[in-house]
Design goal:
4 helices; about 375 residues; rod-shaped; four-stranded mixed beta sheet
């Protein structure tokens, strides 16, 4: 989530100027106002897309057989004559030794390719202030507002499509025929008849126990998450707010550091809590913190130490819930002394302490 940034411009206003430049209506003489411009707000969204479709996978379960036994007649009953016995002849009897069936053939699923273009970052635009070179001692006279646009960003995502799902077809398998021999009476016996009993035999054959079938397994679809940034809220100009004119100039905070230290003491935190925190919580303004050292010690070391002191105040305000984007910390070392105590000049400890200070002012 992007953080709101405020660009605040402090102006001394007159009634005639407010009408010409769209400034606050009915301003009071001797008062200052700030105009806040909010940046566009964005948010990250996550979208799930299908990159590989679900499909069905088929497997063939072949047919099974079982063996059965049949009792068949292999010789008919007859009569035997004493003098002329019966005459027989052989005939072939057909039967199905193995039943026919249908086998199953599977054609697997086929797939295709496709892609989709996503806008991962929208087209945006907004006002930005830039400082230009000019002869005016007032930095605010050198500010230029530019309307800047940024193109949208896109991303192509490839995915697989189901062209044709799996199918099954039948393949017929013929039955297996067979024969057995059967004797039948061609000429019956004559004269005295003697009964001849029939004869039987047991044959074995295979029949289908369970026909061929298929089993199906569903393969789930595959998905992919696409993250992209979208415009949540359009920025713009908000209302004018009154601000103390004295806050537009450098204001010394009664924070005095020990020699060679950037640690914020308990009394220093109390000072910040009573001055800067109420201002930042009540007004949508940005603050510049400027830290200074005395002239004693190495110049480069003093410059680094002053930057550490400014950073200490910024970090403390952030710990109290103030957005870091509203704070600016700058160290000036011993380049901005408030008295004559420069390098080589003898001064008292109290005079040197006045230079070890932190200042603040409202900035853009």
């Amino acid at each position: 989530m992007k953080t709101n940034l405020f660009l605040c411009l402090a102006l001394f206003l007159g009634y005639g100027m407010s009408q010409a430049q769209n400034l606050p209506a009915n301003p009071e003489p001797g008062k200052c106002y700030v105009k806040c411009i909010t940046k566009d707000e964005f948010k990250d969204v996550e979208e799930t897309i299908e990159v590989y479709p679900a499909y069905t996978k088929l497997q063939v379960v072949p047919a099974t057989y079982k063996t059965v036994e049949d009792r068949v007649l292999i010789k008919e009953a007859s009569k035997k004559l004493v003098y002329v016995p019966a005459v027989y002849e052989n005939v072939q009897v057909s039967y199905i030794k193995k039943q026919g069936r249908s086998d199953l053939s599977v054609s697997p699923a086929t797939f295709g390719k496709n892609s989709r273009t996503f806008e991962t970052y929208p087209e945006t635009s907004g006002w930005e202030y830039k400082e230009t070179a000019c002869d005016s001692p007032n930095k605010e006279d050198c500010m230029v507002a530019c309307f800047v646009g940024y193109p949208a960003q896109f991303r192509d995502v490839s995915f697989t499509t189901l062209a044709k799902d799996a199918t099954v077809s039948n393949i017929p398998v013929n039955e297996t025929p067979a024969t057995y021999t059967k004797k039948v009476v061609k000429t019956p016996a004559r004269m005295d008849e003697i009964e001849i009993p029939a004869q039987y035999s047991v044959i074995k054959r295979q029949v289908v126990a369970t026909p061929a079938t298929t089993t199906s397994v569903t393969v789930p679809a595959k998905t992919q998450s696409v993250k992209r940034t979208v415009l949540a809220k359009k920025g713009g100009i908000t209302t004018w707010e009154e601000v103390d004119c004295g806050l537009l100039s450098s204001n010394v905070l009664p924070i005095f550091y020990e020699t060679g230290s950037a640690r914020i003491t308990a009394s220093s935190k109390k000072t910040i809590n009573e001055t800067l925190l109420p201002l930042l919580n009540s007004k949508p303004v940005n603050i510049e913190l400027m830290s200074h050292t005395d002239s004693r010690g190495n110049d480069d070391f003093n410059m680094s130490l002053s930057q550490q002191r400014a950073n200490s105040v910024v970090n403390y305000l952030v710990s109290k819930g103030i957005s870091r984007s509203r704070l600016s910390g700058k160290g000036f070392g011993e380049t901005r002394l408030v008295n004559r105590c420069s390098n080589g000049v003898e001064c008292s400890a109290a005079q040197h302490q006045k230079n070890r200070r932190t200042e603040f002012r409202i900035i853009q």
